[in-house]
Amino acid sequence: MDETAATTKLDWPTKAASAAGGERTEDSDDEQENDGEYDGEAWDTLNRSFRQAQTVLDENRTLIQKVNSNHESKIPHNMAKNVGLIRQINGNISKVLSIYSDMSTSFSGIVRERRLCRIRERQEPQQRRGRR
């Protein structure tokens, strides 16, 4: 992962929602400040997961280079090493799958929590008016 990808924080969720006429255009300043709290949590979750996945993928790149080198050497002992290396690559692919699955679950939970908070915030003023 290059330095730009590791340090850049995209703002596509807010811009995309705004461009599509989504909720972002109707939020008050207070709601937008609260959104920042959730956005930070969501970005941290995504960033951490993508970094973990990239680390494993980088390891796989190195392992694949070793497999290729061993294969090109045509030395029987090196070729036999490839079995273990390929198993390790396969295990790493499973790790990446698990990382992405966990990331999806975490991100979905954050989005679900955010929606519930918005619903509750909108219901509170209505409930207060009903009590009067």
Could you characterize the architecture of this molecule?
It is a single chain. With 132 residues, the chain is mostly helical. The chain has 4 helices and no strands. Keywords: Biological rhythms, Nucleus. It is found in: Nucleus.
Describe the secondary-structure layout.
Elements lengths: L2 H5 L4 H8 L9 H45 L2 H56 L1
The major β-sheet equals: none
Task: Give helix % range.
Answer: over 70%
- Residue-averaged pLDDT: 78
Anisotropy-based shape: rod-shaped
What does the radius of gyration come to? 23 Å
Total DSSP E strands: 0
Q: Which class best fits the helix and strand makeup?
A: mainly alpha
Element order, helices and strands?
HHHH
Number of helices: 4
Which features would summarize this protein structure in a list?
4 helices, 86% helix, mainly alpha, 132 residues, single chain, disordered N terminus
